[in-house]
């Protein structure tokens, strides 16, 4: 009987030129359109969608364990970062075969776009995507900005591919409507501090933050890094890029002690470019904060970044859980490799990424991911928390054990304040902070002051890069994923910021307090204390 049944089903499969109708199953859905967007009709059938498909990765639990082992200062494996080959992400060969054969049945040829083979890409018209994913792509308009995007509220995959497909993007993840060019705000208020003459913080630093201010405020040495493989990555998206002429002006004006010919290396990926021409400047105050559309792991270089800072993100509720998890695992991979990953926490206080309407607090992504370091902002001298500094609690990611003691102390002291407006059991952020108000920059040939955690993350990242330089010179392992260090031996090496709050959603937000708080995290760097804490 068994033989015959198999034989018949084989014949049935072989006889038909058209693929068998497969049973479809909803794979991802969102309950509602994210706040601020409205549905404005079906998507034009012939619009071509560039779809990305992520295959299920092989061993996320193994990856997490490896990350924790190499990042916990008291662990025997501390600092023993993994090689690219040792990282657990390649999908199983079964998944690769099953998914490619499904796509081939639909006359779709997909390109593999990540080294581990876990991301595929293909372009198909809306009409075909609607059938393939048993969905209806629609046009959604963001009311405040008028920006439109083609998305859906749910999509399906063949039931037999569950366990092979992680997600298809862009589907239910909505874009950050506030993505825009960098804003040059105000002209410098005072003559900025350039050369350090004493340990005292120059008076001008109260209203204009320059590298010299940061050097005095945080005790950052002026001596350059020594190790040539020490790379600090600064990612740029949405028409924002590093500009050679601006860097030269900045170095000439604000770091006269180092050659103005100092430059950067460029690594473009996923169709990115760096045209060196800044088209226009937006008028808003706050630096753009937007989600990376690809994982940094796609970076093809064989050497790896020691530190990577990113100033882009968006509200967690606009992103699919699968995508959030997938990107968060990518940061875990980089951390296991030895890269310190830092992100700006967001510029809308408890309202997240610049949202004007909210009833409950809006955590930002990727700050809710427990495998990266989220950086909030401080303001002024002496430092207080910056009111725009986003902080709070993820609704997607549970609170990791490395921060549970710090966070529960805070929550106990907080009492019933903001009760019901945030998720007490979520991953809490930011982890640390740095100056983010009135930061002197050069962009588009002009010099001026900007505001945002987009400034704080690279400032903290530069401190990490200098600590790594000392560690590498001493033959010691790099810091890699920072949080287990920060919440243990690192905590006392930070300046605790205890005043201010981060209002939003018609509340005063969270108050900063002694030790960890969801405005400034554990605090800002004290370089000499950090040096001792990392064993230098
Ligand atoms: C800062 O020091 C450099 C030499 O190190 C000097 O050329 C420059 O004029 C000084 N700038 C200011 C504003 O004092
Ligand atoms: C860092 O901490 C040490 C020890 O408490 C202190 O003496 C020093 O002034 C601090 N450095 C800065 C720049 O605040
Ligand atoms: C709160 O966070 C927990 C832990 O991550 C999560 O399981 C739960 O769904 C979240 N609650 C809400 C209402 O989002």
TrEMBL record:
Residues spanning the signal sequence: 1-23
Cofactor or coenzyme needed: Ca(2+)
Subcellular location: Secreted, Extracellular space
GO cellular component entries: extracellular region
SUPFAM superfamilies from the UniProt entry: Protease propeptides/inhibitors (SSF54897), Subtilisin-like (SSF52743)
tRNA processing as UniProt keyword: no
Keywords, ordered alphabetically: Calcium, Hydrolase, Metal-binding, Protease, Serine protease, Signal, Zymogen
InterPro entries with a match to the protein in the record: Peptidase_S8/S53_dom_sf (IPR036852), S53_propep (IPR015366), Sedolisin_dom (IPR030400), Tripeptidyl-peptidase_I (IPR050819)
Single GO MF annotation: metal ion binding
Main location: secreted
Record CDD domains: Peptidases_S53 (cd04056), Pro-peptidase_S53 (cd11377)
A Pfam match: Pro-kuma_activ
Listed GO biological process terms: proteolysis
Domain Peptidase S53: from-to ranges: 208-536
Record protein name field: Peptidase S53 domain-containing protein
Gene source species: Pycnoporus cinnabarinus (Cinnabar-red polypore)
């Amino acid at each position: 009987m068994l033989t015959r049944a198999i034989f018949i089903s084989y014949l049935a499969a072989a006889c038909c030129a058209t693929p068998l109708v497969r049973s479809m199953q909803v794979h991802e859905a969102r309950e509602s359109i994210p706040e601020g967007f409205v549905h404005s009709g079906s998507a034009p059938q012939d619009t071509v969608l560039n779809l990305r498909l992520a295959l299920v990765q092989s061993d996320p639990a193994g990856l997490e364990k490896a990350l924790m082992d190499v990042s916990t200062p008291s662990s025997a494996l501390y600092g023993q970062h993994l090689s690219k080959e040792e990282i657990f992400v390649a999908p199983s060969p079964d998944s690769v075969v099953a998914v490619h054969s499904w796509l081939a049945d639909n006359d779709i040829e997909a390109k593999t776009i990540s080294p581990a083979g876990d991301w595929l890409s293909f372009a198909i018209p809306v009409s075909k995507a609607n059938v393939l994913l048993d969905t209806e792509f629609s046009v959604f308009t963001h009311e405040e900005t008028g920006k439109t995007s083609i998305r859906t509220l749910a999509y399906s995959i063949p039931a037999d591919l569950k366990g092979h497909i992680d997600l298809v993007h862009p589907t239910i993840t909505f874009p950050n409507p506030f993505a825009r060019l960098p804003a040059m705000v105000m002209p410098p208020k005072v003559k900025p501090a350039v050369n350090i003459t004493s340990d005292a913080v120059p008076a001008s630093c109260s209203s204009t933050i320059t590298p010299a201010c940061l050097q005095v405020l945080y005790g950052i040495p002026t001596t350059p890094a020594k190790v040539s493989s020490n790379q600090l990555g600064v990612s740029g998206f949405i028409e924002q890029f590093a500009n050679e002429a601006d860097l030269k002006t900045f170095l000439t004006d604000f770091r006269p002690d180092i050659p103005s010919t100092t430059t950067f290396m460029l690594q473009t990926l996923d169709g990115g470019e760096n045209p060196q021409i800044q088209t226009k400047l937006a008028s808003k105050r706050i630096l753009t904060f937007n989600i990376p559309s690809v994982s940094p792991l796609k970076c093809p270089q064989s050497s790896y970044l020691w530190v990577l800072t990113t100033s882009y993100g968006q509200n967690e509720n606009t992103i699919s859980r699968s995508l959030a998890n997938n990107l968060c695992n990518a940061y875990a991979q980089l951390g296991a490799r030895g890269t310190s990953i830092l992100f700006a926490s967001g510029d809308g206080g408890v309202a997240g990424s610049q949202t004007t309407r909210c009833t409950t607090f809006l955590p930002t992504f990727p700050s809710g991911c427990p495998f990266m370091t989220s950086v909030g902002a401080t303001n002024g001298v002496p430092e207080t928390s910056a009111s725009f500094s986003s902080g709070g609690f993820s609704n997607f990611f549970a609170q990791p054990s490395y921060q549970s003691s710090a966070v529960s102390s805070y929550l106990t002291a907080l009492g019933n304040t903001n009760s019901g407006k945030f998720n007490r059991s979520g991953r809490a952020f930011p982890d640390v902070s740095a100056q983010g108000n009135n930061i002197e920059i050069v962009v588009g040939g002009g010099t001026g002051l900007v505001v945002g955690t987009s400034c704080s993350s690279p400032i903290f990242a530069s401190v990490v890069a200098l600590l790594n330089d000392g560690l590498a010179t001493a033959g010691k392992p790099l810091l890699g994923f920072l949080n287990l260090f920060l919440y243990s031996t690192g905590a006392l090496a930070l300046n605790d910021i205890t005043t201010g709050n981060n209002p939003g959603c018609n509340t005063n937000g969270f108050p900063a307090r002694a030790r960890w708080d969801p405005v400034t995290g554990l605090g800002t760097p004290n370089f000499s204390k950090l040096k001792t804490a990392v064993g230098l």
